[in-house]
Design goal:
By secondary structure, the protein is an all-alpha fold. The chain has one domain. It is built from eleven helices and no strands. The N and C termini lie far apart (42 Å). The model has no long low-confidence stretch (mean pLDDT 80). This is ABC transporter permease.
């Protein structure tokens, strides 16, 4: 029963055209963000696909993913509340905690899949027509995998958990949307004041994703540290 809850939810998402459309949007976001980040940290001799670029992008995860997490995670549980099937499911011999866990795991799995689309866009960017004439080196797959484990997975996990918790507490999917919107605003505010505040450490602590500290670290690097790919 428990396994079927997870697999049914994942299959439901994979069978929806909207999921694949969003995946394409995430690939596009990876391309756009990589181009913008490179333009921001550009130095002569830095590779277009330097690991420093991926490091910043993977810390930020992208604003589109905030919205997607709210929609996917919130609706995963809210459908039961909206169609009043929760009461029927809870009368079945299913542990309530495990039921929520399976719902969370399914939403998290789909969010990770979409996050991988974001990474795919970063890998594609240097090879697309119209890309900058900057030098292109080997794809920093090892560094990107490390960034994925260090930044993206924990951020996706926490955002998914927060989104699900808000739906459970307030029993409204709009609570998930509001929660993600608040975090987006907080990220924008910390990024806006980061370069002008005397309280840099406090601002970096308020950054919900770790994007600011990643940007500060990469900007302080020299060309040799940005390219070839930065190491752990």
């Amino acid at each position: 029963m428990i396994t079927s809850i997870f697999s049914r939810e994942v299959l439901y998402r994979l069978q929806r055209p909207l999921t694949w459309f969003v995946l394409l949007l995430m690939i596009y976001q990876g391309i756009v963000y990589s181009t913008a980040t490179y333009d921001r940290i550009i130095n002569e001799g830095v590779w277009l696909n330097a690991a420093a670029v991926a490091h910043i992008n993977q810390a930020g995860i992208g604003f589109l993913l905030f919205i997607v997490i709210a929609i996917i995670t919130g609706s995963a549980l809210h459908r039961d509340l909206e169609h009043r099937t929760a009461a029927l499911l809870y009368t079945c011999p299913v542990n309530e905690k495990r039921f929520f866990l399976e719902r969370f795991a399914a939403a998290f799995a789909i969010n990770v899949l979409l996050g991988l689309g974001y990474i795919a866009g970063m890998l594609l960017m240097p090879w697309l027509p119209g890309s900058s004439g900057a030098p292109v080196g080997p794809a920093p797959l090892g560094q990107m995998a490390w960034n994925f484990a260090l930044f993206m997975l924990p951020n996706l996990f926490l955002l998914t958990a927060l989104s699900l918790a808000l739906v459970v507490i307030f029993r409204q999917v709009t609570a998930s949307y509001i929660g993600m919107a608040v975090l987006m605003v907080l990220l924008l505010l910390t990024e806006f004041v980061r370069e002008h505040t005397p309280y840099l450490n406090l601002v970096l602590l308020l950054d919900p994703l770790g994007y600011g500290i990643s940007m500060e670290t990469v900007i302080a690097m020299g060309v040799a540290e940005k390219t070839p790919p930065i190491s752990r």
